[in-house]
């Protein structure tokens, strides 16, 4: 499971579809609707937020918005309306790590997207994240 801290605009088609599915799985985990993935490191920041379900629904909302921009047909009904303006901090080190991770993936499966992103110095985060100083997040499995 990879719940990117980077803005979904940077993901290729395969990455955006995978993110949608994985965020929906995360929503099920946080809702208590599945037995698997309960301790997955990618869920820590959502679990530690004021309201984990609001947080994952807000996360999904922005993935859905990106899908709309691309004319994809994601099911908006899978996102609960309850997703107030909750935000979560993310460190600059985490964003840098994720950029490198994404570039490795894109180098193998989408050379055009790779060439577009490799030249960008600093990628912006997913809209629900607020950037703070720091290294790679403790929950990240490297």
Structure characterization notes:
The protein has 142 residues and is mainly α. The chain has one domain (8-132). It is 47% helix and 6% strand. The chain is built from five helices and two strands, in the order αααβααβ. The protein has helices at 13-31, 44-47, 52-69, 92-109, 111-118; strands at 88-91, 129-132. A two-stranded parallel sheet has the order 1-2. Helix 1 (13-31) packs antiparallel against helix 3 (52-69). The longest helix has 19 residues, at 13-31. It starts with 12 loop residues before the first helix and ends in a 10-residue tail after the last strand.
Brief summary:
This protein has 142 residues and is mostly helical. It has helices at residues 13-31, 44-47, 52-69, 92-109, 111-118, and strands at 88-91, 129-132.
What average pLDDT do the residues reach? 93
Structural class: mainly alpha
Strand order of the largest sheet: 1-2
Low-confidence stretches: none
Query: What's the β-strand tally?
Result: 2
Helix content: 40-55%
Strand content: 5-15%
Oligomer: single chain
Number of helices: 5
Query: What letter string, H or E per element, gives the SSE order?
Result: HHHEHHE
Question: How would the global form be characterised?
Answer: globular
What is the alpha-carbon Rg in Å? 15 Å
Distance between the termini: 13 Å
The description of the largest β-sheet is: 2 strands, parallel
Overall tally of structural domains: 1
